[in-house]
Amino acid sequence: MTSDMSGSTDPHESQTKAAQHEQIDYLDREVNLLKPSTPFMRDHLKVIWAGFIAWALLTFGPPVATYLAPGLMTTQLPGIGFPAHYFAVAVISPTSSLVLAFLYSRKRDQLDQRYGIDHGAAASDAGETHGDEAAAVDGGVTE
User: Fold this and answer.
1) What is the pLDDT of residues 12-33, one digit of tens each?
2) What's the first-to-final CA gap in the chain, in angstroms?
3) Can you tell me the distance from the alpha carbon of 110 to that of 55, in angstroms, rounded to the nearest whole number?
């Protein structure tokens, strides 16, 4: 992940990006994973690709290393007494997935803040009821 995604501290830059983001009509933009059409999509895709590459290395790295260097990966680790490949597959791989999920959520929150996206406003609008009329949950009409 590059340093330009670290969540700028300059409020003017954040306001400028948020203002530009408000002017974009996303319904008229083409969604293409290989060539994103908006700055937000480009920044989000950088975060996704960086996370995917890290996940692939951390998840598939230990088994591949065990296959390529079985002598090194099957040696006992000092202190815990487990073979290196067992520790890497049983502890490092699952833990890294949790850490990557946390890092993604932090980066996504930084992107949302940079582009002025507020999820709280959308959630409060969705919870409002109009008048005394309640929506029928099954899609039909109330009797």
Assistant:
1) 666 676 666 667 776 777 777 7
2) 55
3) 20
